[in-house]
């Protein structure tokens, strides 16, 4: 029977990094993973970053819905249609606002019998754990029915901070194993059992944020990326973008995490929806994105003159 592993966690916690690690490890161990990516805006951007390791036919991006509620039927129906493979395993990355408890409650209902009951892995950003203010309840919800919790962003955190986070996680979910990414044995993950932890209910509608995207022109230089990210208000929790920089022929991808950190890296391939700037979080509006782009290009023009 084929295992289903869902990956949950707050925006920017490191879900996609974990997904890449698991996918690569399974491929190296002669498994055949199928990947499902869920995001509010343009899940294709993340999906394309996996195609250097896996054939695109084994990746399914699901955009524009939340798989723990409005998108659960679409997700379940698609999983049931996944082709049978030798040593098959299905990896699902949920969007950063997913109600992890509801996802596990509803996903397993109606799956065909060649699949094992889904298990859940939660990714926890140790540095920013429970520093989400109004979204702390959502973050704590995302660990309560996980069978495994993976700690990330431990760099620049103290041993006392790490111990505090682990104590709080054990209070919320005493049954989950807690590891760092380098300690994962992927061959044992299919043997994990679904959590039997009793979870607290979450009013998930409070976490249904707005999102939007806009075409992004070529940018003059890397400073334009930082100008855009700094111009957008902090209540917009996640910024992503992909475009060409200067005379580069290849694309560059960037993102701003909820803590304000900006990361820039090469983009694999050509974005099938074209160069985009997108935002996720309260206050996401098309006019704000357009204004930030315009201001960055004006600043670049001033730097050149």
What does this structure look like?
28% of the residues lie in helices and 23% in strands. It is built from eight helices and twelve strands. The protein has helices at 15-28, 44-48, 72-80, 100-107, 136-141, 159-172, 222-231, 286-304, and strands at 3-9, 32-39, 59-63, 88-93, 119-125, 148-152, 177-180, 211-215, 238-244, 251-256, 262-266, 276-280. A seven-stranded parallel β-sheet has the order 3-2-4-1-5-6-7. A five-stranded antiparallel β-sheet has the order 8-12-9-10-11, covered by helices on one side. The longest helix is centred in the last third of the chain and has 19 residues, at 286-304.
Task: Throw out a few tags for this protein.
globular, 7-stranded parallel sheet, alpha/beta, 305 residues
Task: Note the topology.
Elements: E1 3-9, H1 15-28, E2 32-39, H2 44-48, E3 59-63, H3 72-80, E4 88-93, H4 100-107, E5 119-125, H5 136-141, E6 148-152, H6 159-172, E7 177-180, E8 211-215, H7 222-231, E9 238-244, E10 251-256, E11 262-266, E12 276-280, H8 286-304
Parallel strand pairs: 1-4, 1-5, 2-3, 2-4, 5-6, 6-7
Antiparallel strand pairs: 8-12, 9-10, 9-12, 10-11
Helix pairs in contact: 7-8
Tell me the number of strands: 12
How many angstroms separate the termini?
Answer: 64 Å
Query: What can be said about the biggest beta sheet?
Result: 7 strands, parallel
Uncertain segments: none
**Proportion of residues in β-strands:** 15-25%
What is the H-and-E element order?
Answer: EHEHEHEHEHEHEEHEEEEH
Radius of gyration: 19 Å
* Overall 3D form: globular
Mean pLDDT: 88
* Fraction in helix: 25-40%
What class, by secondary structure content?
A: alpha/beta
Strand order across the largest sheet: 3-2-4-1-5-6-7
How many individual helices?
A: 8
């Amino acid at each position: 029977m084929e295992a289903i592993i869902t990956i949950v966690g707050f925006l920017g916690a490191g879900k996609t990094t974990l997904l890449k690690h698991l996918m690569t490890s399974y491929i190296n161990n002669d498994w055949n993973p199928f990947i499902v990516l869920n995001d509010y805006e343009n899940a294709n951007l993340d999906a394309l970053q996996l195609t250097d390791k896996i054939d695109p036919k084994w990746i399914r991006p699901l955009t524009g819905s939340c798989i723990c509620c409005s998108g659960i039927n679409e997700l379940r129906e698609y999983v049931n249609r996944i082709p049978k493979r030798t040593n098959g395993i299905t990896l699902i990355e949920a969007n950063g606002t997913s109600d992890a408890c509801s996802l596990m409650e509803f996903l397993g209902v109606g799956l065909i019998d060649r699949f094992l009951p889904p298990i859940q892995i939660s990714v926890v950003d140790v540095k920013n754990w429970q520093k989400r203010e109004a979204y702390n309840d959502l973050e704590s919800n995302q660990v309560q029915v996980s069978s495994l919790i993976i700690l990330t962003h431990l760099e620049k955190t103290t041993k006392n901070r790490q111990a505090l986070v682990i104590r709080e996680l054990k209070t919320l979910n005493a049954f989950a194993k807690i590891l760092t990414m380098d300690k994962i044995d992927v061959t044992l993950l299919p043997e994990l059992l679904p959590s039997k932890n009793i979870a607290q209910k979450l009013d998930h509608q409070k976490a249904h944020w707005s999102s939007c995207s806009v075409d992004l022109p070529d940018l003059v230089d890397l400073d334009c990326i930082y100008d855009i990210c700094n111009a957008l208000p902090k209540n917009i929790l996640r910024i992503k973008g992909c475009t060409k920089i200067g005379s580069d022929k290849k694309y560059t991808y960037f993102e701003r995490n909820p803590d304000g950190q900006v990361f820039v890296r090469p983009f694999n391939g050509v974005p099938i929806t074209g160069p985009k700037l997108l935002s996720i979080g309260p206050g996401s509006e098309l006019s704000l994105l357009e204004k930030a782009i315009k201001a960055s290009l004006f600043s670049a023009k001033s730097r050149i003159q």
